[in-house]
Structures are given as C-alpha cells and as structure tokens.
Write a structure and sequence with these properties.
With 248 residues, this protein is an alpha/beta fold. Helix content is 24%, strand content 25%. The chain has helices at residues 17-30, 47-57, 79-85, 117-127, 159-168, 235-240; strands spanning 2-6, 34-38, 64-68, 91-93, 98-102, 134-138, 173-176, 183-187, 190-194, 210-217, 220-227, 232-234. The strands form 2 sheets. A 6-stranded mixed sheet has the order 3-2-1-10-11-12. A 6-stranded mixed sheet has the order 4-5-6-7-9-8. A hairpin with a 4-residue loop joins strand 4 (91-93) and strand 5 (98-102).
C-alpha cells in the first residue's frame, strides 16, 4: 500500500499554482492508494478558497482522499464550510491490514491545537480495537516540537496525554502538518511524521515545497520525503544529515 501525505496547501493568497500543478503530476504518476491532507487546505477559511480547493483536489487520481481541517481552515467561521466541502470519516479501514484514524485539533479562532479529553478517550478505545493492524493517526497540529521552527507555543496543548494514548494503544505512525517543516521523530515502535507545505510560499527549515510518501509492505512502513519537482529520499536522511540544509 502507498499513502501520500500532503499538507498545508493554503489555497488563497499564499498558494503557488505552479507547485500544485507539478504536485498533481507527480502524485498521479505514483498512483497512491490513499492521499491524506493534514490540514490548512485554505488560507483564510473563505468560501471562495474552499470552492477552489475542492476543484483542485478533483485533479488527483486515487481511490480515496482523506482531509483534515487546520487552524487556517477554521478562520472566519470556515469550520462551518469544511464539513460541507470536505465531508470525512474519522475511522478509515484502508485494507485488511491498515487503519487510519483522524483526530481534529483545530479550534475556532485559535492557532494552537487541542485534542481534548473526550476525543483522547475515544482515540484510545478506538485504536485498541485494532490489535493486529498497522495503526496510523493523522492530525493537523504537530504533536512534538520541530527544529528550525522557532519558539514553540502552538503544539497540541494536551500533547502529553495524546502521546501516552498513542504509545499505550500501539499506534505505529502519527502524521502531522502545521509547521511547514518536514521532520520525523522515532520512538522505537512509534514514528511521528511531520509534513512540509506542499504548495504555499511559506516554506521553513528545508526551503522547498515537499510532501511525504508512506510505503507499507509486510507490516513495515517506509517514509520518504519528496521535494515537489525534485528528489525523493528517506525522511530519516533529512533528520540524520543536517548538511542537506546547506545545499538549499
């Protein structure tokens, strides 16, 4: 199975159409089973942005697109529009071996993320039902602070509770967006994967637009970073070799 993680499109004033066109061509050539978009599809949560984004996403060729709202999508009461334009299921059994669960972290008129006590309890109960599957959790806000992103006050405010839940319920991967900086943290059985921005001008740390490619085979997960219009590499190569930044 192949899953493409795209994040932080920011359709609106910061959107780069030429990057999106390249992104569509590359992703369609991959022919992934699933595309997961981890938030900030729009820049200001406006109806015109939602309409344009919905039209743009129709260019992808895949069996399933899973969308998650971000803090930018919630601006200007955009949270009322998100459900209209991008209806979604929180539990997605992708095949007999893989389940992907989405968690909402965006809140109206707040930039920081929060899972909340009730949603965290629900997540724990839900994930423990899938003992023999590869378990993926996807959310917008980053669960753990990321290098090269400055002073961090915008992480999930109840991150400690959520980390305990995902570790206790043996989640394999957590997918995050929000900070526009690709990165991965490995905790033995758990990997927390952060996506860069795929199509906005607000790149950070690694000064390229990027997305992630997850390949699942024989109960193992390989995560690759793909520069839009550029090279593909294991995301660990970026983490373990900071000299990559000197090449930008």
């Amino acid at each position: 199975m192949q899953i493409v993680q795209i994040s932080d499109l920011h359709v609106g004033s910061q959107f780069l159409q030429e990057k999106f066109d390249i992104l569509v061509k590359e992703v369609n050539e991959l022919n992934p089973d699933v595309i997961v978009i981890t938030g900030d599809l729009t820049n200001e949560g406006l109806m015109g942005e939602y309409k344009k984004c919905k039209s743009l996403l129709e260019k992808f060729k895949t069996k399933k697109i899973i969308t998650i709202s971000g803090n930018h999508d919630y601006r200007n009461t955009g949270y009322l529009l998100f459900k209209k334009y991008f209806p979604f299921e929180t539990v997605n059994e992708l095949d007999d071996d893989v389940v992907l669960v989405t968690v909402g972290t965006a809140r109206p008129d707040r930039n920081e993320g929060e899972v909340g006590h009730r949603q965290n309890l629900w997540l724990e109960r839900t994930m423990k039902k899938y003992k023999d599957k590869i378990k993926i959790v996807a959310m917008h806000h980053h669960l753990i602070a990321i290098p090269d992103t400055g002073s961090d006050q915008l992480t999930v405010v109840d991150a400690g509770d959520v980390l305990r839940t995902v570790l206790d319920s043996k989640v394999d991967v957590v997918l995050c967006g929000h900070k526009h900086r690709p990165w991965a943290w490995n905790f033995k059985t758990l990997t927390v994967v952060n996506a860069g921005t795929a199509t906005s001008e607000r790149v950070r740390g690694l000064f390229e637009n990027t997305y992630n490619i997850l390949t699942i085979s024989n109960k193992k997960i390989q995560v690759d970073l793909k520069i839009v219009g550029g090279k593909r590499m294991p995301i660990d190569e970026l983490v373990n070799n900071y000299n990559l930044l000197d090449d930008q």
